[in-house]
Amino acid sequence: MQGLTVGNPSVYGPIQLRVADCLIALTALLGWPVAFGVSFGCVLANLYFFVSPVDVALGPVANFIAATIVYVFRRKPLLGCFLGVFPIGLIVGGGYLWWFFDPPDIFGLSLPAWAAMAISITLSSLVAVGVIGYSLLRALVRSGIAKTVET
């Protein structure tokens, strides 16, 4: 089923820059409700842009693991956001997405499809969670909203 085209290729495919994944970083601030929310949201997104039952089942698991890592490292949120992208890259990219989409070219290297997809999804998640998500988290903390939520 290689070459399947579903939805926006920057959101569903070999490069998954899902801006909604930036919400995973908010687990450091708001805890388990966010972890469950980003997981359930992933179920809905994967049902809407259906690729496979595997994606519907494992995508949310990857998001939940990522959010759990962010929560565990909530005292060091930048580290948590950085580490949290790896389950998404490994489970989604390296685990199964390469079955459905042609992997991207990674710097002209001749990589196995699963490895190229794992790298691509990890880098995409790093932008969404590590850059956009962490920036959103820092902005909320600086604005004082974090103190309102904590009380």
Characterization of this structure:
With 151 residues, this protein is mostly helical. Helix content is 64%, strand content 0%. The protein contains six helices and no strands. The protein has helices spanning 27-30, 32-48, 53-72, 77-94, 113-143, 145-150. Helix 2 (32-48) packs antiparallel against helix 3 (53-72) and helix 3 (53-72) runs antiparallel to helix 4 (77-94). The longest helix is centred in the last third of the chain and has 31 residues, at 113-143. Mean pLDDT is 87; it is low at 1-10.
Helix content: 55-70%
Helical element count?
6
Work out the strand percent.
Answer: under 5%
Poorly predicted segments:
1-10
Tell me the total number of β-strands: 0
**Main β sheet profile:** none
**What is the ordering of alpha helices and beta strands?**
HHHHHH
The N- and C-terminal alpha carbons lie at a distance of: 51 Å
Tally of structural domains: 1
Helix-and-strand structural type: mainly alpha
Mean pLDDT: 87
Rg:
15 Å
How would you sum up the global shape? globular
